[in-house]
Amino acid sequence: LRESLAQAEAAVRCDPRDGQSWYVLGNAHVSLFFAGGQSPGSARRALAAYAQAERVDPTAAANPDLHLNRATLLQYLERFQGALEGLSRASDLAPQWEEPRRRHQQLIGYLGDLCRLLETRGKLRGKRRRGVAGPVPLPLLGPLGGAGGPRPSPIAGLRPGP
Q1: Which residues span the domain enclosing 88?
Q2: What predicted TM-score, i.e. pTM, was given to this entire model?
Q3: Disordered: where is this region (predicted)?
Q4: Which residue of 9, 12, 55, 96 has the smallest Cβ count within 10 Å?
């Protein structure tokens, strides 16, 4: 993967206006992201390379694979609106290709299920829900429950961030 990434970077340096090279670089970063520990930096670089491919080359912008691959990454990052848009774009660009439409329908189904579970609080009632929502015993937190580690917080006290 590192070798393919180095080759893709070299191709981009040779011709920064070649959208195909930027697309390949984005794919190399996606591969590294999934195989190399889901580094946020790899995800950012992949998304930037895909965006650059679209910016510099109209042919690359019309590549349904680019949109499908970016949508896959966005879905994994839980950026669902962008994932849905990418899957729709891939489907529009390649109407005969079933994969983007199938994945779009699956994602819509998943999001629908998620919304229903949130609305019904996981279909749990009363005493059972209170038991699940109660505090987690410190031994179950493993290293997170140790001295100096993060402490449990009530859901209402959580805020976006690290």
Answers
A1: 64-125
A2: 0.74
A3: 141-162
A4: 96
CB 47, CB 70: distance < 8 Å: yes
Instruction: Evaluate whether residue 72 is within a structural domain.
Output: yes
CATH of the domain at 57: 1.25.40
Number of domains in the chain: 2
Same domain, 42 and 82: no
69 in the same domain as 85: yes
d(CA 29, CA 83): 17
As a whole number of angstroms, the distance between CA 38 and CA 52 comes to 22
Residues 1 and 43 in one domain: yes
CA-to-CA separations, 24 to 7, 12, 91, 125, 156, in angstroms, rounded: 10, 9, 20, 50, 43
**pLDDT digit string (tens) for 106-136?**
999 999 988 888 888 767 666 655 555 556 6
Q: What is the dihedral of CA 104, 109, 115, 116, to 10 degrees?
A: 170
